[in-house]
Amino acid sequence: MLVTEAPEVVSNDGEDVHRPIRVLLIEDDIDDFLLTWTLLDRVPGALFSLEWTDSYETGLAALRREAHDVCLLDCQLGARTGLELLTAAAEFGCRTPILLLTGVEDRDTDLAALRAGAAEYLVKQEITGPVLERALRYARQRAALLEEIRRLSVTDELTGLKNRRGFHLLGSQRIREYPADTQVLLMYADLDGLKSINDQFGHEAGDRAIQAVGSVLSRAFRASDVIARLGGDEFVVLAVDVPLHAERDIAWRIRHHLAAQNLAWTPAFELSISFGFVRHVLSSTLSLTELVAEADARMYEEKSARRRQREVARAPVPQPSESAA
């Protein structure tokens, strides 16, 4: 059944039950559009919303909006082809599954569609309502599963931040989005004393400490900044297009949120973070890996300086000798 709008019905486990499948049809033949409309409208027990566009250009623009669950794409669009559109969609990173429709079964086109990234290849003469409904439903479910796998592959399970792979993928992308001469700031942070926390209070307490540091960093930085846990007690943050002297403000926010966390902290230990900054101007030769290594070195300099300060503070004050009295 086709709908213009439908309320979302959500089950107890948070999964959409009756949300219509949002279908984009890119088809230059009005008769084929009407046939598709009729097939979807007559499928019992299934809900669809259908948007139709009739050209290569408008179809590509609609895909860029990422407002659909599935796309049905005609193999021939005037002077352009569906294979060309598939290639263009892949180039901008389209994640909407695309089902290619063709009037004639052809193995070469089938294989070319697969290589171009099509989720399915359907021959129009073989399409019935149930066949189309199943193809759309399966495509949406596969896309949702792939998206979850993709999310998990770049996410740190313990903190919900990006992991090492996610940091390098998203960080590299973020750098490419800005012009040369943009100020970029990278901070490397380390949770002090994690081994002691694990040894004295157990690994569950250590995990809570790591999660707390992730929360502190998330509150101290902007939503657009790339925050990641590289592993163990090590964190890194990439901030692009930052004002001069932002390091001072960021350091203040970290210490402020860390102090608030320690006030609310129930375990019998206090959280402490060491961190170091590096700042560079974006250029074609700027390496994210080199930035991380440089910030890591700065962080260890800061950690060593704090350790020396503590040793000086704990050193006994020499008593004056009797001859000096």
UniProtKB/TrEMBL annotation:
Gene3D superfamilies: 3.30.70.270, 3.40.50.2300. CDD domains: GGDEF, REC. It comes from the Bacteria. The modification 4-aspartylphosphate is found at D74. Keywords: Phosphoprotein. GO terms for biological process: phosphorelay signal transduction system. Residues 304-325 are annotated as: Disordered. Residues 182-315 form the GGDEF domain. Residues 22-139 form the Response regulatory domain. Its EC number is 2.7.7.65. GO terms for molecular function: diguanylate cyclase activity. Transmembrane segments: none annotated. It catalyses: 2 GTP = 3',3'-c-di-GMP + 2 diphosphate. The keyword Phosphoprotein applies. NCBIfam families: GGDEF (TIGR00254). PANTHER family: DIGUANYLATE CYCLASE DGCM-RELATED, REGULATORY COMPONENTS OF SENSORY TRANSDUCTION SYSTEM. This is diguanylate cyclase. It comes from Gemmatimonas groenlandica. The lineage of its organism: Bacteria, Pseudomonadati, Gemmatimonadota, Gemmatimonadia, Gemmatimonadales.
